[in-house]
Amino acid sequence: MTDWLALEDAVTLPTYAKPPVALVRGEGTRVWDADGREYLDVYGGHCVALLGHCPPRVVEAVRRQAGRLLFYSNAVYSPVRAEAAAALVALAPDALGRVFWCNSGTEANETALKLARATTGRSRVVAFAGGFHGRTLGSLAATWGEKYHAPYASVLPETTWVPFGWEGAVEEALVGEDVAAVILEPIQSMSGITEAPPRFYQALREICDRTGTVLIFDEVQTGVGRTGAFLYGEHVGVTPDLVTLAKSLGAGVPVGAVLVSDAIAETVRPGDQGTTFGGGMLAMAAVRATLAQLVEDDLMTRAAALFERLAAGFRATGGVVEVRGRGGLVGVTLDRPAPPVRDALREAGVLVGGSGRADTLRLMPPLTMTDAEVDDFLERFAAVLA
Question: What CDD domains does the database record attribute to this sequence (predicted)?
């Protein structure tokens, strides 16, 4: 395995600090490394493997599409793209009736911010301390953290930062009528799975309506049924003007999307937006199959049961201080630093993630994880903490 690690380090730019594991195969909740070692994956490739690894229905859809037409840009019509868009819109609130396809979460957020500025004729954005929206320049400007901004500060668009969960600060930030958009993760993932009270989201909707500001929910991690509803806004009775999606949307195939309100869609003309690979046939086949399985297997109901089983097990485990989140998006705060626990779990054959909080682990299990697999994970987790 060492040769693979050295080769990748030698020929690619560094991104994350990677563990010494080279993964070569996945099936369901399991992955295997180049040495043949098996891991229980409760991280899901960073919140991507909504249906587990290599879900047969998605694999077959992609294989079938690959034999027909690998790609043509959305300069032409495509039946598989039309069907994927119709399936996505059917699961969204009625007011979000149009889709823009792209390739990633940061692209989706870039597009949403552009649409907000074009629609309102304003430039400033309000974002929240602790939020993460991507690393391309527009979305990076709305991502919290000096470590992300420092090399690019001179070229980042203007952003006003407010505390997450405090609607009074948002009200103050919108004075002056120059704010194009308020953007937020409804559950802040990198910050340790942090959620605000329902009234906060409802107040944001009221404030944005009153001031003519576009409300953007970044549901790159919370969307596609992962929290037990197709979109988080359903939990709190709020429909944003724009919703961004990626991660779970293709169950492993790269794809992003923006759900666009009818009012904003009416302002967009041909040529205002564009993408070469967004809406490509392979990705659309994956989206169509992912959404079909999500609905037919009632996985949004399963998401709630999955969280409850995990939370009950964590609360019965010594060393766990708090459990947060919904469905397959779980934060576990410990009475000790989290990174050594994450590393020990990997040695025990379990993959989990860290967070921006030194004491908190993040879990993004597939909604297809069985009760037996949950119990297996909880046993290994308890053994590591002990």
Answer: OAT_like
Q: Which tokens belong to 83?
A: 């069907």
In order of their start, the domains of the chain are 2-55+298-385 (3.90.1150.10), 58-296 (3.40.640.10)
- Strands of the sheet with 360-363, listed across from one edge: 320-326, 329-334, 360-363
Amino acid at 280: G
- Angle 79-91/281-296 helices, nearest 10 degrees? 40
Distance in angstroms (rounded) separating the CA atoms of residues 123 and 373: 48
Query: Tell me, what amino acid is at 352?
Result: V
Does residue 366 register a pLDDT over 90?
A: yes
pLDDT of 1 higher than 70: no
Give the DSSP per-residue string, 51-97. T-BS-HHHHHHHHHHHTT-S---TTS--HHHHHHHHHHHHHS-TT--
Q: Write down the mean pLDDT value for the chain.
A: 96
Indicate the pLDDT class of residue 2, thresholds 50, 70 and 90.
Answer: low
Note the pLDDT of residue 173: 94
Q: Is 4 exposed, middle or buried (0-12, 13-18, 19+ CB in 10 A)?
A: middle
pLDDT of 341 strictly over 90: yes
Relative orientation angle of helices 281-296 and 56-66, to the nearest 10 degrees = 150
Give per-residue pLDDT as tens, 288-299. 999 999 999 999
**Angle, CA 355 vertex, CA 132 and CA 302 arms, to 5°:** 85
Task: Using alpha carbons, select from 376, 371, 328 the residue that is nearest to residue 350.
Answer: 376
Tens digits of residue pLDDT in 3-44: 888 999 899 998 888 888 999 999 999 999 999 999 999 999
Tokens 């301390």 correspond to 129
Categorize the per-residue pLDDT at 386 as very low, low, confident or very high, splitting at 50, 70 and 90: very high
The alpha-helical segments, DSSP class H, found in the chain are 2-11, 44-47, 56-66, 79-91, 105-120, 137-140, 146-149, 167-173, 198-211, 233-236, 262-265, 281-296, 299-315, 338-347, 371-385
What DSSP character marks residue 43? S
As a whole number of angstroms, the distance between CA 376 and CA 307 comes to 15
